[in-house]
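$ ./design --mode recover --in tokens.txt
reading tokens...
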């Protein structure tokens, strides 16, 4: 018990007080009663009156006093360790969004994670989930299937059958039939963290993704494949999170309109700040990924969209204005598998997540207006209200968590 309390009590004064109370308790139990003289011979003369007095007391009274003093010890220990216990409870609650194995594995891997940055050999690792083997829409030399044309590695998580046909050295297959969207991406994420050296960008994408040029594409860009154009852009601009045009919702046209209506900015641009984005293609910079992932998985079996919504919130809070959309390349996913698209309790789930990341934020920014606005209406803020839509995009911005919020403190 003593070892447990001292381990979880970081304050030195609290530790010393606990030790004092425990010593007092042991002293009372061991030295009360008539045998005190035999245990403390050096104090025999000075304490002889004390011993005589207690020798005449009934045994019941002696034990009563000892019991009372023991209670005082326990109360004192509770008072002085209360804050520590509260901190432990807060930590426990903050990890409920992830499985315990994921959290502690994640933390241990990140201890020496940043040290791997300068030794990167390949800049990109692509991470995707599929039924069995890498599908044909990704397997050609113009996509990610050929190590001669893609300076990348690939990890594929198969969820229906194991892939037995792999003749490419840069592709690794995993198998797990018990995952959904977020939990599957976390399997891929942790597997990627194990790689040494690390990568500049960790790119998660749907397996049915197709990249195409669109109305925003400059003519000279079409000389290379869309995948190579996106990779070049990522290294050229280095967004904290890079996403692509998406015609289904919140694509380049929507963002351009948002900048015009919210910010009064009418100039077109090939690179746009964004806040609300689909999970079809998300490229996380190595300096940002450890602050955003793993994906929250607490509610994925009841509301599969919640994990991506919460990830967008984390990006906005920690790296607002540094999630950039590359307008000249559009991502599409024509397959659209059948799955539960329920959004039940999605707002409440987001508010719970917002409260948790607020508690994790530096104390000086916990009262920032961003948390109040997100709590009021998470979807409305992400879609239409965020000031991140109005930032001026520049290359190679420092990727530092909360930097944009600290400027307002």
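writing sequence...
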């Amino acid at each position: 018990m003593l070892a447990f309390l001292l381990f979880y009590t970081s304050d030195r004064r609290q530790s010393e007080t606990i030790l004092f109370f425990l010593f007092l308790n042991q002293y009372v139990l061991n030295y009360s009663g008539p045998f005190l003289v035999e245990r403390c011979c050096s104090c025999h003369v000075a304490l002889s009156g004390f011993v005589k007095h207690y020798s005449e007391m009934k045994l019941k009274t002696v034990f009563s006093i000892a019991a009372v003093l023991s209670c005082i010890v326990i109360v004192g220990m509770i008072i002085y360790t209360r804050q520590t216990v509260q901190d432990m409870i807060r930590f426990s609650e903050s990890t409920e969004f992830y499985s315990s194995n994921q959290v502690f594995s994640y933390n241990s891997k990140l201890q020496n994670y940043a040290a791997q940055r300068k030794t990167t050999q390949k800049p990109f690792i692509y991470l995707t989930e599929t039924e069995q083997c890498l599908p044909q829409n990704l397997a050609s030399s113009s996509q990610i299937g050929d190590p001669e044309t893609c300076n990348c590695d690939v990890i594929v998580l198969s969820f229906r059958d194991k892939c037995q046909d792999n003749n490419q050295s840069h592709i690794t297959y995993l198998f797990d039939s018990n995952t959904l969207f977020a939990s599957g991406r976390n399997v891929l994420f942790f597997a990627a963290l194990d790689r040494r050296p690390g990568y500049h960008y960790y790119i998660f994408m749907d397996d049915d993704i197709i990249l195409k040029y669109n109305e925003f594409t400059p003519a000279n860009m079409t000389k290379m494949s869309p995948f190579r154009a996106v990779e070049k852009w990522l290294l050229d601009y280095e967004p904290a999170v890079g996403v692509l045009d998406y015609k289904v919702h919140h694509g380049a046209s929507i963002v351009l309109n948002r900048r015009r209506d919210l910010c009064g900015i009418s100039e077109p641009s090939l690179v746009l700040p964004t806040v609300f984005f689909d999970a079809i293609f998300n490229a996380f910079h190595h300096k940002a990924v450890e602050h955003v992932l793993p994906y929250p998985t607490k509610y994925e079996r009841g509301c599969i969209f919640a994990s991506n919504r919460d990830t967008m919130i984390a990006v906005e809070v920690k790296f607002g204005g540094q999630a950039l959309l590359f307008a000249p390349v559009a991502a599409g996913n024509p397959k659209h598998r059948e799955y539960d698209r329920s959004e039940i309790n999605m707002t409440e789930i987001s508010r719970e997540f917002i409260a948790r990341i607020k508690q994790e934020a530096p104390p000086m920014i916990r009262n920032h207006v961003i948390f109040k606005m997100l709590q009021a209406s998470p979807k409305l803020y992400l879609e239409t209200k965020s000031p991140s839509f109005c930032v001026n995009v520049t290359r190679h911005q420092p990727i530092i968590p909360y930097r944009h919020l600290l400027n307002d403190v």
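exit 0
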